[in-house]
Each structure stands twice: as structure tokens, then as C-alpha cells.
Design goal:
Blueprint (H helix, E strand, L loop, with lengths): L1 E10 L6 H19 L2 E6 L6 E10 L2 H16 L5 E10 L6
Antiparallel strand pairs: 1-3, 1-4, 2-3
Helix pairs in contact: 1-2
Length: about 100
């Protein structure tokens, strides 16, 4: 089992309210959930208009598949012109054979 988490920090320079922010963030999160089967949520800066911290995770049977899915997620996020990606970091969960 391979688990990868992706943390993405974005700047939304054209956004002027939390309502506008939601209208930009929702298609990103929903699109990633439906297209790539990942868990997705806004995890930071919920009270700031022009900033968002997004979190994604995937569980896969192979490391290669997990990397491929996260590559697709990152490219999808970069495809939104209204969202400037400031940083993107991946985290791997260490495998434990507890069963």
C-alpha cells in the first residue's frame, strides 16, 4: 500500500471575497475528486480571500500509480489561470506491515 499526500499553496489575486474564493476553489477540489479519485480539501487560510492551502491524498497499490495520480492532480491545478501555485509538496506515508 502506498499513500501520498500533496499540499498546495495558491494565491488568488483576482478574488475579493470569501464567496469569490469558494467559486474558484470548489471546481479545483471537486474536479480532482471526480477525475482522479483523490481525497481533497481546503486545509489552510480558510479566512483569507486571496490565499488557499489545499490538501490531497491518494492510496494506491503501487508507488508508480500514486505518483502518476499526483502528477495529474498537480497539472490540473496548474491549468486554472486564476490560481497561482506558490508551492506544492508531496509527503509519503511510510508503509507499516501491521496486519
Amino acid at each position: 500500500m502506498h499513500v501520498v499526500a500533496l499540499s498546495v499553496d495558491i494565491h488568488l489575486r483576482q478574488v475579493h471575497s470569501l464567496k469569490e474564493k469558494r467559486s474558484v476553489i470548489r471546481p479545483i477540489l471537486d474536479g480532482c475528486r471526480h477525475r482522479f479519485g483523490v481525497a481533497a480539501a481546503e486545509v489552510a487560510y480558510q479566512d483569507r480571500w486571496q490565499r488557499a492551502g489545499l490538501g490531497f491524498s491518494v492510496v494506491a497499490s503501487t508507488a508508480a500509480h500514486a505518483v502518476e495520480v499526483m502528477d495529474h492532480v498537480e497539472r490540473f491545478i496548474w491549468s486554472f489561470p486564476e490560481a497561482e501555485v506558490l508551492s506544492a509538496e508531496r509527503y509519503w506515508l511510510e508503509e507499516s506491515h501491521a496486519w
